[in-house]
Structures are given as structure tokens and as C-alpha cells.
Design a protein that fits this description.
Double-stranded beta-helix; 23% strand; single chain; iron ion binding; alpha+beta; NE0471 N-terminal domain-like
Length: 371
Amino acid sequence: MISIPSLQCSRPNLWLRDHCQCSSCVHEVTKQRLLDTFEIPRDITMQSLSETQEGFNVKCWWSDGHDSYYPKNWLNKFARGDSSRERQGINKASLWTSSIAESLPKVYFKDVMDTDQGVGQWLLNLRIYGFCFVEGCPPTPQDTERLLKRIAFIRQTHYGGFWDFTSDLASKDTAYTQISLEAHTDTTYFSDPAGLQLFHLLSHTHGSGGASLLVDGFKAAQTLKQEDPKAYDMLSTIRLYSHASGNEDTSLQPYQSFPVLNHDVGTGELIQVRWNNSDRAAIDAPFSEVQNWYNAAEKWVQILRDPSMEYWEQLKPGMPLIFDNWRVLHGRSSFTGKRRLCGGYINRDDYISRFKMTNLGRAAVLESVIG
């Protein structure tokens, strides 16, 4: 165990030896482990331990003949258990209600397209608020696709990759109709639901309506927990199946059932809302629990439908909307006429990677990876 004053590290010797970061233990370019963990003696010991002359690192001589250097701030970080939040790119979320309309998170198309700093601010807004508008985007599919690819590659699904669609039921989903849609998250029928979703209204002719609805799922969950803790627990434990079976050649279903509210197993924080009553299939619970789930879900829907929770916006050409599909529920009012939209999905892992790289920097990200 480390015992230098100013360090509070109680990691086992085997763990410390296994996490040596020298070039013979970790590839300098790929950052992949080169050390054969299972050739380290189980009873390995430190022969000596000292601080380097600069005082930033600790040098350890091991009984297997290897020398290791460890940054002191790195050792302290893992002693405090700080790495989990950095791994996930957790940022302090600002929960909101309908009053968010008074101060909307926005960035400018030119800033996002010209600099990684602009991308970083865009993604920071997403981490804080769960959604963001982009002003000044040319109202074309080509420019919108370029914008979305500033984050990462666009996710391919049964809808295709980048969408450019109208309400023609080209895909057998209610999104491709003119009817209203209640607040929901997309792709609950995937084992790994899409992380981000972007919409850009390119045109709306010969009709009206079609206002877009956003609800902060984390705020709704917080309200449910405060008002009815048992209902919150019910939606956090009872699991649901979902499906997408409209197209004749597909019936998409996740590999297992999932609850509406999903939490990080380490920190206990709410990390994902999965709610789409239209795509819901079976309730994966004994019949003795089903009535309790319906009661909890009814309370949840009452909160989602509370006008004070709803932010409505009439989308317009030149101002794409992007939102975190693991947090923000979306919907729309019914409409007439012809609306043309484009957009796409980004995978959650790619979104968080891009956020961390543009806001934390590669050095800080890698430091949190290795522990």
C-alpha cells in the first residue's frame, strides 16, 4: 500500500502494478494494455517507494524487477473515487420546466462548424439542459447533415441514416403521420437507445400546427420522487418490453426488458429515461405487481402532461433542434399541410466521447480511463 504523506491511497499492490502506465506496460499510441496481468505474481510487493525530485510523481520498485511511476494526483483521484463521474462525462444538470422558454440554450452554426470550441459549447449545453438550438444553419439537408457530423457519425437504423422525410408513412411509424404525438423518448425498442436526436424543419406549406413539445425527463422524475417515492421506485424496478414492428421486414425488440427510469449502479444517479407508451409491449412483472405499475405510470404521465412541465416551440427553417434522447422527451401537436424535416441519431457513447474530448481534453479523459 502507498504510505507517502500527502497521499491517501489504499489500492492493493497487485492493482498498482497492473496499472503501471510506462511504455512497456501500455502502448504509447493506442493506450491499450501490453502487460500480461496474469503473469504478475499474486504476492508481488514493493521493494522501495519514493517521490521523484519534482514531487509530482511516485516511483515504485517492484519485487518482479519492474519500476513504475505514478502521478500523485492520479493516485489521490482514485483513492477519492473521482473517476466514475469523469468516465461518464457527468456534468451538473440544470433541470427545467416550461419557463426555459425565457432563456433557451443556443449556439451558432458558424461557431460549431468552424471550431472544436464551438462544438464543445454545443455539447456542454446538451449536458446541462438536455437540448440546444443551432441558429443560422442553412435550411438544407446537406448543411444539416454536416452539422450533425460535427459530433460523430450518424447512426444507421431501420429508418436509414440521415433522414429527409414528410408525413407519407414511408416508414410505418406514427412519426410519419400528421397526428399529435405525446411526450416520449425514441428507440426504446433498441437495447441501446439513440443518445442524441436532431430535427430541422426545412419547410411547412399549405397548413398549420405541428408545434414541437419538450419535457425534461429528469425534472419529471425528480417531481415524481418527491411527490410519490413508491411510484418512483416502481418505475425504477419493474421492467418493460418494447417493440417496433410496423415495417413488414422488422420486429425490433431489446435483448431484455428495461425499467422506465434507469440508474447508474455505482453512483445511484438517474442516467436514462425510457418512455414510449406507443412502443410499449409486455410488462415484465408478476400479475400481482401489474396494477401497482399502472398506478405509478399514471402518476408519471400526469406529471409529463402538466402544462408547467411542457415547453412548446414552433420549429422554423434555419434553426435545428438537438436533444438528449436519454433525458428529454419530445412530442408534437397535430398539423395540416406538408412538413418536410431532416435529421438523425447519434449514438450515446460517441456523443459522450466528443463532449469529454472537447470540454475536458484528452489528457484528463485518459487519466480517468486507466483506473
